[in-house]
Amino acid sequence: MPNHLSEQPAPGLQGAVGESALSGERFHKPERWDFPFGEHMTKADVDRLLAIPPFSSMDPARFPPAASLRDILLNDSRIRRCAAGEIVVREGDYGNSAFFILSGAVGVVSLPDRVLGRREPQKKSFTRSLARLWLNPPLPEVRQLDLSGHAAGSPDPALGVREGEGHETTIFLQDAPFVLQGQRMGRLAAGEWLGEIAALGRTPRTFTVVAEEATELLEIRWQGFRDIRARDPQLKAYIDHLYRERGLQNLLRKTRLFAGLSEEALAKLADQTRFETYGSFDWYGSYRTIAALSPAERLKHEPLIAREGDYPNGLLLIRAGFARLSQQYNHGERTISYLGRGQTFGLGELFRGRREGRPEPLRRSLRAVGYVDVLVVPTAALEE
């Protein structure tokens, strides 16, 4: 019997056949560049960026010709100028981009929902979140500030709205010094990054960021930010350090298995946790082609994270993206389910191995659907 994969269909996986990016064919520029992130971004702007840190220290040779650093900055970024009191990002909004402060300064605050003019957000089901990955919208993510969260009627008097560049709308605090009094939790200035953790994980912003003065920022679409981070070791190390410092302990704390640990134990666990990434950061276009293949062929294009029958070397925690959980069936494999952010893999085998006093092989395989960011908590750290 030929190899096959018995499918439990993922929602929305009936994409039309697009231009193939499979092995053996030449690499094409990312499809998202058909709609540049900043319509007013110029080559002169890119020249300016490449002349200042951290971009001036990046090695262009690490980037492929079809997705050079210069082209990423030209197509995946834009320069945003904010007046004092303008809200750069709102707490609770999903992170689709990261920011680098070129000049000026911003305040990092946590403001009540009424000040942000927001209703209680609707929670998405796991199925809807997974389906969103395949239901590729006709336009790429060119983010506009979303005012749909405002309560019925006028927004809070402290909140103002005005037209920004092009067709965009900006939100600002009417009396920023008064509203922010006693609220500021941090301050970031020129040369610092912000919003990088939410952009990498495409998770809700944990704070609101407000311009304290006239501020110029470079905003990078999350795909471009991921590509730069993946190819520049210094930026990767820096961002991973920030994540370990700012976000990792929070994610571990929200994982049921570690919810009862002390802050000291969580910090020690975070120090031993490894970051791993599987799949392509810019996978949407090629996956429409892959989705049209047979189940067995499709399986070959999903990067293997862990193989059934191998012994686990730690607990896997999905940080971002989705992974396929499958099991051997006749001469092929069948899909059992999909894992998403915050879910774990390998815990049962680790517990059984500890109880039996000998390693327990994995009972299922795990593969990346598109791309997956994974945290690996070593077995030794769990045993401690």
How does this model look, in words?
This protein has 384 residues and is α+β, with helices and mostly antiparallel strands. It folds into two domains: 17-231, Jelly Rolls; 239-383, Sandwich (Jelly Rolls). The chain has 13 helices and 17 strands. Strands 1, 12, 13, 14, 15, 16 and 17 form a seven-stranded mixed beta sheet that branches. The chain has a four-stranded antiparallel beta sheet with strand order 2-11-4-9. A hairpin with a 2-residue loop joins strand 14 (314-329) and strand 15. Helix 8 (233-254) packs antiparallel against helix 9. The longest helix has 22 residues, at 233-254. It is globular. The N and C termini lie far apart (46 Å). The relative contact order is 0.17. Mean pLDDT is 78; it is low at 1-26 and 133-155.
Total DSSP helices: 13
Q: How far is it from the N-terminal to the C-terminal residue, by CA?
A: 46 Å
What low-confidence regions span 5 or more consecutive residues with pLDDT below 50? 1-26, 133-155
> What characterizes the major β-sheet?
7 strands, mixed
Give the helix/strand layout.
Layout: E1 5-6, H1 43-50, H2 69-76, E2 77-82, E3 87-89, E4 97-103, E5 105-109, H3 113-116, H4 126-134, E6 159-163, E7 169-173, H5 176-180, E8 184-189, E9 193-194, H6 196-201, E10 208-211, E11 215-221, H7 222-231, H8 233-254, H9 263-272, E12 274-279, H10 284-291, H11 295-300, E13 304-306, E14 314-329, E15 332-339, E16 344-345, H12 347-356, E17 365-378, H13 379-383
Parallel strand pairs: 1-15
Antiparallel strand pairs: 2-11, 3-10, 4-9, 4-11, 5-8, 5-10, 6-7, 12-17, 13-17, 14-15, 14-16, 14-17
